[in-house]
Design goal:
single chain, 8 strands, binds uridine-5'-diphosphate, transferase, two-stranded antiparallel ribbon, glycosyltransferase, six-stranded parallel beta sheet, Rossmann fold, WecB/TagA/CpsF family glycosyltransferase, alpha/beta, hexosyltransferase activity
């Protein structure tokens, strides 16, 4: 898709709805990819963190998670349609996952928090096929087992909420073990959903 360069970030010109449909299309087509949601704070972090910069640059989809980035795109005469926030994507994707029978996995936050977030989402999206969930507090020696658990669950869509850049490092290192088709780092979203 068409992209816009803003500072050290390259953003897809996708609305939230278009992003969701593109991800669902990829899942149906059996394709794999990482979606990065980038806000101004993450752009700044990328500047001083080459590993994070490379991760974002090599993501299959990159969306602008902040109104300032949308404004900046207008100044560049390359308007982004709208802000696309990770937390909104979770809800929209869960709704579409119910319709299409796509299995979902939630990894990150404290165990009581991720459990509550899953409860809330299953309440909001009746019939949501939650293949599994797990907290985000584990050492490097456990990372591979955590990733393989996702693959064994058969989940096609994975949300990782372990904060930036921890979640990006995990996704990068475990990409070959995760199985899931579409993987999205969603920062602190499970805390917000759990309330
Ligand atoms: N988190 C996690 N594993 C960790 C550290 C943090 O799963 O080792 C979770 C934390 O519970 C929270 C989210 O990551 O749900 C964001 O954490 P934090 O606020 O520390 O990061 P930031 O939002 O500042 O990136």
């Amino acid at each position: 898709p068409a992209q816009v360069q803003i500072l050290n970030g390259r953003f897809d010109k996708l609305s939230a709805d278009q992003t969701v449909e593109e991800l669902m299309r990829a899942i149906r087509a059996g394709e794999r990819g990482i979606l990065s949601t980038v806000n101004v704070a993450i752009l700044m972090m990328m500047r001083s963190n080459p590993r994070l910069q490379r991760f974002v640059d090599s993501s299959r989809w990159i969306v602008a998670d902040g109104q300032p980035l949308v404004w900046a795109s207008h100044l560049r005469q390359q308007p982004l349609p709208e802000r696309v926030a990770g937390i909104d994507l979770i809800d929209q994707l869960c709704a579409r996952a119910v319709q299409e029978g796509v299995g979902v996995y939630f990894l990150g936050a404290e165990s009581s928090t991720v459990r509550e977030a899953v409860n809330v989402l299953q309440d909001r999206h009746r019939g949501l096929d939650v293949r599994g969930y797990a907290d985000g507090y584990f050492g490097p020696e456990q990372a591979e087992a955590r990733a393989r658990a996702v693959a064994e669950s058969g989940a096609e869509l994975l949300f990782v909420a372990m904060g930036v850049p921890r979640q990006e490092y995990f996704i990068e290192e475990q990409w070959d073990n995760l199985g899931a088709r579409v993987v999205i780092g969603v920062g602190g979203s499970f805390d917000v959903i759990a309330g």
